[in-house]
Amino acid sequence: MSYHANEKGYYGEFGGAFIPEMLYPNCEELRQNYIQIMEEPSFQEEFNQLLRDYVGRPTPLYFAERLSKKYNTKIYLKREDLCHTGAHKVNNTIGQILMAKKLGKNRIIAETGAGQHGVATATVCALMGIECVVYMGEIDIARQAPNVARMKMLGAEVRPALSGSRTLKDATNEAIRDWINNPVDTHYIIGSVVGPHPYPDMVARFQSVISEEIKTQLKEKEGRENPDYVVACVGGGSNAAGAYYHFLDTPEVGIIAVEAAGKGINSGESAATSALGKIGIIHGSKTLLMQTDDGQITEPYSISAGLDYPGVGPLHAHLFKSGRGEFISITDDEAMTAGLEMSQLEGIIPAIETSHAFAIFDYKKFKEDDIVVINLSGRGDKDLNTYIDYFKL
Ligand SMILES: *Cc1c(COP(=O)(O)O)cnc(C)c1O
Q1: Residue 161 pLDDT more than 90?
Q2: Full set of structural domains in the chain with CATH
């Protein structure tokens, strides 16, 4: 079985490009060129140089001694929290801004919910001196003021989406409308392994630097390239796709995906797509998504804004359906407790998204000599107010 996208962007039965006809030329231009561009030596050289000198790669693979002792196994943390802008998202936006330049685009659009992807996009646009418009739901603009300020500081224009629920999906609609109207000069930077082909595959390839580095670093530290398990939280699934990528075809490496159960899988306030999702089409891709019996997309919920997405990328739907990945759902309370524990055992305050991945030890037992790599997708500075309110700090 293959865990990589085929030519049409399918992972098993999931993926593809379900797009309005007016978007076809834009996606087709990208589809026809992305692999060739990514394989050009000049592209790779610039990408790798920016990852090194601007993002700060390679990020360390850190042996978490106290955490390992507590759970009686060997835990390594892949420190994506140390990337410039504080999370893995910038690996992808660096790749896509270079792609846009190669395609001759001089304007970037993006949509953002919590604002993290908006900030990562505004950052690389500033770096390259390229115009940047970020669509964001009016409600999210009010909820995420610090990230809105960051985007403006970086020179981006933040355009409010005023229709519907005025959140992420409405911002997505506005971005798609913009792209239809500006097919020649504009590139749309999607922030996770979601959307129509070729986005899931392209974003996974940009993020695959994470597992490429894990292999080299583990070889140095343990004398072998492959861990027994690699663990990551899944919103759309980009940090997970990057952490799994070079292990997908190595069945000895267990793949663990951690989703947000919110207030509980059956509470009606959840984002546990593998547990609750059914096959459908979201954001131009056939995948698992949370929906009502008549196919309306259900509003997801998680305490962590980055996991608050009603679907998962098609790769993850395939990993779930095929059994290659083991999916675990973690509630808000379990994640918050794990985030506090992580802070006090290792001196690292994780993003609440990442805290979900640290909460698996009640559900999954590892052997003493297992090597478990957890992708530490981002740092918790952005979540400090949520931690403060929750723990009454
Ligand atoms: C955005 C974000 C996520 C979720 O996005 P994926 O595409 O699933 O990786 C996870 N962790 C952090 C820190 C994030 O900012």
Answers
A1: yes
A2: 17-50+89-203 (3.40.50.1100), 56-86+208-391 (3.40.50.1100)
